[in-house]
Amino acid sequence: MRKRRAPPRRAEAAPTAAPGASTFPASPAARRLARELGVELAHVIPANGERITEEDVRRVAQLRSDATPPAQPLTVSPPQEVRATPIAKRMAREHGVDLSTLRGSGPGGRIVEQDVQAAIEARTVQTPTAAPQVVRQPLTPMRRAIARRMMESLRSTAQLTMTMQADVTSLVEARETWKPALDVTYTDLIVRAVALALRQHPSMTVRWAEDAVERLTEIHIGVAVALEDGLVVPVVRNADALSLPALSAEIRKLSERARRGQLTEAEMSGGVFTVTNLGMYGVDIFTPILNPPESAILGVGRLYEQLARSAQGLLWRWMMNLSLTVDHRIIDGAPAAAFLQRVCQLLGEPAALKG
User: Fold this and answer.
1) Is 328 among the catalytic positions?
2) Catalytic choice (43, 95, 284, 332)
3) Is the model more confident about 343 or about 108?
4) Per DSSP, which regions of 62-220 are E strands?
5) Tens-place pLDDT, residues 45-55
6) Which residue of 188, 229, 268, 304 shows the fewest CB atoms closer than 10 Å?
């Protein structure tokens, strides 16, 4: 007898997953981590295809954080027109001023010419620079003495300076012919002319006293010598009594002693007149300051050529500017001018100087 086959068993329906729930089982640790990271287990597929692990949850969280959100469309606002007068706009273009940075002072906030001008001026103001470094050099006794004497000279005297041109063409030619028998400098020749002129104009050899005018009968002439740190004035005594060669030798000797710092007080005192020559430095004219207690000083400028009219037409002449400063309290302008004129004449008479 045939055995009756049992009817097939009806398959049980699979439970329906709750919304947000995973169709795969997950370990308690994976569920806890999903809650912490905000990961829905329904979106997690286990790597082993059976059970969701913590590693599966971390992978999904990492993928979600790496995702780039969609770019938002940019909204570009149309540029606003700057309200400015035509003149202000033109000035801004010419000077490179950005009108959008200005605040207008015109009606309704309109930018006017004054606004642009103010911006230009503010831009050109320079930032003050740092103060330069200063190196202090202590005053030497010589510099202190020079400063004291110069200030004393200007405070205590009424100084007047006059200038005159001397034609020294003949002197230049004679000096060349005298070499090498007589090698003299232009300073030597000028001191010689001054000494001879002072003999003829005694009104220049005076000095101020509190209750009198003192006239010095001996003609001692100081010759300014420039040093590296100052100026000294050795005195040639009885210069009018010396011949030109003797005078030149004395000036040379005193100048060398001055440069070696060997001058004595006696060699720098007793002068009645001073000659200072800046011609070798290219100076044309300057105002010499009196060397107290003296009342007159002669400043000598450089030699230069100048066209002059003569009977033969225009000729080149050697010229020299002489500047005489006197104490106007005791030496008047006319006697001073006469003396300076005589010095110029003697410089034009080489034979008189040599003799």
Assistant:
1) yes
2) 332
3) 343
4) 159-167, 206-208, 213-215
5) 887 777 888 88
6) 229
